[in-house]
From TrEMBL:
Protein name: CCA tRNA nucleotidyltransferase
Coiled-coil regions listed: none
Keywords: ATP-binding, Magnesium, Metal-binding, Nucleotide-binding, Nucleotidyltransferase, RNA repair, RNA-binding, Transferase, tRNA processing
Database matches in PANTHER family: MULTIFUNCTIONAL CCA PROTEIN (PTHR47545:SF1)
Obligatory cofactor(s): Mg(2+)
Sequence ranges assigned to domain HD/PDEase in this UniProt record: 267-426
Domain of life of the source: Bacteria
Originating species: Agrococcus versicolor
Length: 487
């Protein structure tokens, strides 16, 4: 957005959308106010496409539901207790929420839901001025009658000015805003990354002062906000803000711990900066390899956390710094932290496994791998192989161009060999040549631990020698069984 004229034109455009016109007419006829609010107004002013339309009104939930039923294809009242009704109009899902004037219990951090009567009071309780603007469509006249009005911008905190200047501020004093809901500090960091704006000094200072209060927020809410931050096109600005203000110490303490002390005798690269670079490069690779795909939070978490085992494994000897086994230690730390943040088990396992495997490729650099070694690499990565490709490639942050080119060439070669083996052997669906039923039939045994041992032995033979075929696999199995029985 570059001018007021441009801003006005964009607001007029969003006011003319189908759902907005339909709802404005319906609420005016029913005698209630209505405004488009928050993100859709912000995005319209920025010239960004928005798929979410949020409205606010002085009507209560029962009245909202009564008004939208005749003009919508479907309705949902799952947010009724918070004054929110969702509905579908012209193929778009929209939400309408009663003005809020919440009072926070500052011990439990849970708002006591309180509904308001004025649009301005609703806006001033919002997180940031750029999100505290509304496009008013139906307003009350001096006589108190709700009437359709020419769309007008209601801006209680200078949000339009802040949009023009690329600044993030709070509608009320930031100390009060963060005291009411500390999660707003994470939202400020997320919008710094998402919009590329700068948090103003008073907000940054208040975040630093209130950093520890983020621990009052439930792990699930913190996790969801962290996921939104990591889903932006470049989360590093937001992460830096959280680190600099001390908030990340209470959310992901393993990340700021990567700012390892560099002494005069043991120079090494800044692991914190390296990790942010890996995250950024991984996002770029993600976009290049899978254009249009949704953000891959698993890959991004792995990029951010891949070296968190280094502080615990750092060792200095004869002027050299080593981090032996930091991959294994990091995997355990990642598991513990992500569980504490209530991530689902699949995410926890995937991120931990990627952290554990992120150094595996460097063995390929040391010596030419056999086909068996390539098969093991694929088997160990399993369904995470593509993510491991991205993590390994993005982990190259050296400024030495020759070294970087050599690493890229080596990984190109590894991916080519994997592709060749997959074409020849379907190595990504690696299974032994005999299944459990066949093993039991050949050996004349029932379900037992021995069947599992035989299965794993045949899988290792498959990895080492490639496809055996049923006849040769049976011969290998019988010999293994005979040797085992003779022990």
């Amino acid at each position: 957005m570059t001018s007021m004229a441009e801003a006005t034109a964009r607001l007029q455009e969003v006011a003319a959308t189908g759902p907005t016109t339909v709802l404005a007419d319906a609420f005016a006829a029913a005698g209630f106010e209505l405004s488009l609010v928050g993100g859709p107004v912000r995005d319209a002013l920025l010239g960004r496409r928005t798929t979410d339309l949020d409205y606010t009104t002085d009507a209560r939930a029962d009245d909202i539901l009564r008004i939208v039923r005749p003009v919508s294809d479907a309705q949902w009242d799952v947010g009724r207790e918070f004054g929110t009704i969702a509905c579908r109009i012209d193929g778009m899902t929209v939400e309408v929420t009663t003005y809020r004037a919440d009072v926070y219990d500052r011990l439990s951090r849970k708002p006591e839901v309180s509904f308001g009567e004025r649009l301005e009071d609703d806006l001033v309780r919002r997180d940031l001025t750029v999100n505290a603007m509304a496009l008013q469509l139906v307003a009350r006249s001096a006589e108190g009658v709700a009437e359709r009005v020419d769309p007008r911008l209601v801006d209680v905190g200078g949000g339009l000015e802040h949009l023009l200047a690329g600044l993030l501020d709070t509608p009320q004093a930031p100390e009060d805003s963060f005291r009411d809901d500390p999660l707003r500090m994470l939202r400020a960091a997320r919008f710094e990354a998402q919009l590329g704006f700068r948090v103003v000094d008073r907000v940054r200072d208040a975040m630093t002062e209130a950093a520890a209060t983020i621990e009052h927020i439930s792990a699930e809410r913190v996790r969801d906000e962290l996921v939104k931050l990591l889903s932006t096109t470049d989360p590093t600005g937001g992460l830096r803000l959280l680190t600099d203000t001390g908030i990340l110490e209470h959310v992901l303490p393993e990340v700021p711990a990567l700012r390892l002390e560099v002494d005069e005798h043991a120079h090494h690269k800044d692991v914190y900066e390296h990790s942010l670079t890996v995250l950024r490069q991984g996002i770029a690779l993600e976009a290049a390899r899978h254009p249009g795909a949704a953000p891959d939070v698993v890959s991004r978490l792995a990029g951010l956390l891949h070296d968190i085992g280094k502080p615990a494994t750092r060792h200095v000897a004869n002027g050299a710094v080593t981090f032996y086994n930091h991959d294994l230690v990091g995997a355990r730390l990642a598991t513990k932290r992500l569980k504490a943040l209530r991530f689902d088990n699949d995410t926890v396992k995937a991120v931990s496994r990627l952290v554990e495997l992120h150094l595996r490729f460097y063995g390929y650099m040391d010596a030419q791998w056999t086909d068996a070694a390539v098969r093991r690499y694929v088997r160990d990565a399993g369904p995470l192989l593509e993510r491991l490709h991205i993590l390994t490639r993005s982990d190259v942050t050296t400024r030495n161009r020759r070294k970087a080119d050599r690493l890229d060439f080596a990984y190109d070669d590894l991916e080519r060999r994997i592709a060749d083996l997959q074409e020849q052997e379907q190595v990504d669906a690696m299974r032994p040549d005999l299944d459990g039923e066949q093993i039991m039939a050949i050996l004349g045994i029932g379900p037992s631990r021995a069947v599992g041992d035989a299965y794993r032995m045949l899988l290792e033979a498959r990895i080492e020698d490639g496809p055996l075929g049923a006849e040769r696999a049976e011969s290998v199995l019988r010999k293994w069984w005979a040797d085992r029985s003779a022990e």
